[in-house]
Amino acid sequence: MKxxxxxxxxxxxxxxxxxxxxxxxxxxxxxxxxxxxxxxxxYLPVMYAFWENALFYTGGYEGNALKKHICINMHIPxxxxxxxxxxxxxxxxxxxxxxxxxxxxxxxxxxxxxTIIQIKLKEIPVK
Length: 127
Ligand code: HEM
Prior knowledge:
Structural class: mainly alpha
Shape: globular
CATH class: Mainly Alpha
Bound molecules: protoporphyrin IX containing FE
Number of domains: 1
């Protein structure tokens, strides 16, 4: 029986399962492993804090996700197909394990942030 996202353990589970999928994804994995060479030990706790803040307003995330992706976009252009796949995997992860208000909120947040990042990337001139 699925339940809602209610604790930091739930958030960690969601994030861990999501990046398990990302690391195995034919379209996305190389961006994380080859292009940005992500240090997962460092990065996952940042993502836990980001999602806990996004869902429970804990105030624990002090980064700037938009700036980060503008930077990533300089290494590898973040095309629409990447965002589509990212969202597909994220929604799939949430739906696989959770159902409820916070689960819905997580998907809405992911969608709106993906939209904002894409709009902002288009505003940055190529040269
Ligand atoms: C095309 C889709 C995306 C790709 C390829 C992507 C890739 C990445 C990569 C490579 C990092 C850097 C990790 C590091 O610091 O080493 C990162 C950070 C991050 N991403 Fe994404 N991302 C995507 C979309 C999103 C979306 C839609 C969200 C919104 C929920 C998001 C949230 C974050 C956050 C919060 C960070 C951490 C920023 C920080 O260091 O404070 N990403 N992403």
